Amino acid sequence: MLEIGTQAHPRPHQDALYILLHRNQVLTEEGKQFLIPFTHFQPNANMSAVYCGKWHGQDIFVCRFESIPKGFSESGLRELLFLQDQDHYILLSRAHQLATWDRDHQFCGRCGTSMTEKHQAEHTKICPSCQLRHYPRISPCIIVSIRKDDHILLARGPQAPKDRYSNIAGFVEAGETLEQAVAREVREEVGLEITNIRYVDSQPWSFPHQLMVGFFADYKNGDIVPALGEIEDANWYSIDALPNIPNNATISGQLIHAHVAHIKAQRS
């Protein structure tokens, strides 16, 4: 399990393990192994390493490479995440988000000063000119499974595979509570009013830095009206006859399975 603390961050060293990235791909060894010993690759002067925490007592760093070292293959982050158990999923997600922060905050967003120095005990960069602190960006998103009797609402966006249906989801706006965001997104995307909104679970989603916050809700009123450009199809599906849904490694798949199990337990 990954340990995240506030102790001083160590510098990269030979006894640590490394997660290596090239552009938006994860570099893996045989069997899609992504935790790489120091002795298996050749670091270079341009490599930027970010401390992620301790994994079973061993320091973990994430590094970006401009070119692929010999002996490694590229794996898509989404594909690799779906192969992980929960602990490895969290580790890989954290590493990718920290590497994205490090890459995207080379200059101060307020005054434009170059920022190459990291804080020694937390993940922040402090502008040497105006002292503004730049923390890793986290974008909260809601995702909700909605029940109507023995049916749940499933929808498909324009970017999804043609046969795969999922939950309603969207970003939280400034000044909103999570529950307000749930009700607004459902209203905007499918024209429905919902009630009994309750929190279920959360999951980091590294595309590039979301935190997905999952809810259950109950149908209140309205007819399904898919939002143009946002939703291509939406419908109520019996829990006994679901279409193709997301992988259970995702919070969407987990929400759907958990909601189905909850409904079946209530009716038995």
From TrEMBL:
One of its GO terms (biological process) is NAD+ catabolic process. Keywords: Hydrolase, Magnesium, Metal-binding, NAD. CDD domains: NUDIX_NADH_pyrophosphatase_Nudt13 (cd03429). Its EC number is 3.6.1.22. GO terms for molecular function: metal ion binding; NADH pyrophosphatase activity; RNA NAD-cap (NMN-forming) hydrolase activity. Its cofactor is Mg(2+); Zn(2+). SUPFAM superfamilies: Nudix. Residues 136-259 form the Nudix hydrolase domain. It catalyses: a 5'-end NAD(+)-phospho-ribonucleoside in mRNA + H2O = a 5'-end phospho-adenosine-phospho-ribonucleoside in mRNA + beta-nicotinamide D-ribonucleotide + 2 H(+). One of its GO terms (cellular component) is cytosol. PANTHER family: NAD-CAPPED RNA HYDROLASE NUDT12 (PTHR42904:SF6), NUDIX HYDROLASE, NUDC SUBFAMILY (PTHR42904). Belongs to the Nudix hydrolase family. NudC subfamily. This is NAD(+) diphosphatase. The lineage of its organism: Bacteria, Pseudomonadati, Pseudomonadota, Gammaproteobacteria, Oceanospirillales.
